[in-house]
Amino acid sequence: MKKEVVLLIFVIFILSVGCYHDKSKNPDKETKSPFITDWCDDDPKSNVDFISYSSGSFTLHYLPGTAAERDREDILNKRNSVLATIENMLDIKEDRIIDIYMTPNRRAAKLHNVGAGAASPVQGRIEVLYLDDPQSYEQTRYGHEVTHVVAYNIDPYNRFHLNFIEEGLAEFFDHSGRDYHQVFVQVCKAFKLDLAAAIQLNKDDVYGRSYTKAASFIQTLFDIDPDADKFKAFFSGCYIYLKGNYPYSPDGQLIDADKLIEIIDSQLKVHYGITFEEFNKQWLDNLTPLVNTKPLRLAEDDLNEIKQLFTVRDQAMSEGNAELYRSTMEGFYCDTLSDSERMSIAEQTISKAAAGKSRVIDAFYLTIKNYAWALVYFEKTVNGKTEILKAFLEHYPLGWRFNRVEDELGRGYSSGFGSTLPEC
């Protein structure tokens, strides 16, 4: 923990937000304490190197003294099980030994020159974080990256396929035990989306940003016809090229929403004998019986903690305290946003955004990014005027922290608030 963190006078750090009474000044006034934040100081394991351990079709590379070392048997058993399921359902065979590199945090991944959530299908290599939390991504969605690698065997001659199809297949085989139609309906309800509108493909689907939507699409495809050969031919027909980070169709056109629909429509006609419009009707028919499914609201303890987080954020903005504001922000994604950049965001928000009073209206569990991820709707009242805004939060070992808030200033990248189903 950085020693230079500035504390408010008479305020103590505690692992979850606490409070104290300054009775010497006002016996009835309650002042909220700042949150402890990790300040991107996770141990990068700089003094050790990878140890390898093999079982079945995988070789695990882990750093000593980490959760991956402790769980190595379970890690490999689960991934060998995933592989067997994919091989059986898609009638393919993975003959390679797949390398999995696991690091305990993003600083360690960067220091050891590996990814923090990536698959390299051609190389047969996976690079992910394995966090010491049973609800974290690689402990609950452990089939996702494995599927990306194994799917290489469907069409080894074409490296890239539509992101929407690749991500949907990987999510479908993530082995989380979820029904993807139900999950998609729950996410749509959290974002207040009509199902008929939500299944329409858009610019976000070009990049496969909504895993739950894409997985529901794939589940519908197997609902219509579980034949492995048909699916493999469909998948292969969805191949694309990349120029830079942009997807292009085989005929050289930059893929937008219309081109995405055109490609999928053509492959559905060839391999399933249906149009995209007919597919969408079946998709909606599969989702409609779940229309009364309730979205996953956060538990009361989580909701109370998030309400407290908003209270501290309001206090920071009211007092112009950037340090206090920073303490409500995540400190996990240190490879994409440095602490100095976080402080810059805090300072710009404090100096330019209007202070007011926030009230949490509703909070929904969405999915798992690295840890559990939530969408929160809140009212913000400034000078008698109230508007409804959104915030995305993630549940780190230290508690809930803001990833992005709609009225936050100074971010140099897309906030995700303009997306239909951002990263869900």
Features:
424 residues; alpha+beta; Glutaredoxin; Nuclear Transport Factor 2, Chain: A; five-stranded mixed beta sheet; four-stranded antiparallel beta sheet; 16 helices; 14 strands; 38% helix; globular; disordered N terminus
Question: What do these coordinates show?
Answer:
The protein is α+β, with helices and mostly antiparallel strands and 424 residues long. It has 3 domains: 110 residues, Collagenase ColT, N-terminal domain (Glutaredoxin); 142 residues; 110 residues, Nuclear Transport Factor 2, Chain: A (Roll). Helix content is 38%, strand content 20%. It has 16 helices and 14 strands. The chain has a 5-stranded mixed sheet. Helix 5 packs across helix 6 and helix 11 packs antiparallel against helix 12.
Order of helices and strands: EEEEHHEHEEHHEHHHHHHEEHHHHHEEEE
Number of strands: 14
How large a portion of the residues is in β-strands, by DSSP E? Answer: 15-25%
Number of domains: 3
Roughly how many Å apart are the termini? 32 Å
Strand order of the largest sheet: 3-4-5-7-6
Largest sheet: 5 strands, mixed
- The whole-number mean of residue pLDDT values reads 89
Compact summary:
By secondary structure, this protein is an alpha+beta fold.
Helix-strand blueprint:
Layout (H helix, E strand, L loop, with lengths): L18 E3 L8 E3 L18 E5 L2 E5 L4 H4 L1 H19 L7 E6 L2 H6 L5 E4 L4 E5 L7 H4 L3 H7 L9 E2 L1 H10 L7 H11 L4 H4 L4 H4 L4 H14 L3 H10 L1 E5 L2 E3 L8 H16 L3 H12 L12 H20 L2 H5 L12 H14 L4 E12 L3 E11 L2 E12 L2 E7 L19
Parallel strand pairs: 4-5, 5-7
Antiparallel strand pairs: 1-2, 3-4, 6-7, 8-9, 9-10, 11-12, 12-13, 13-14
Helix pairs in contact: 5-6, 6-10, 7-10, 10-13, 11-12
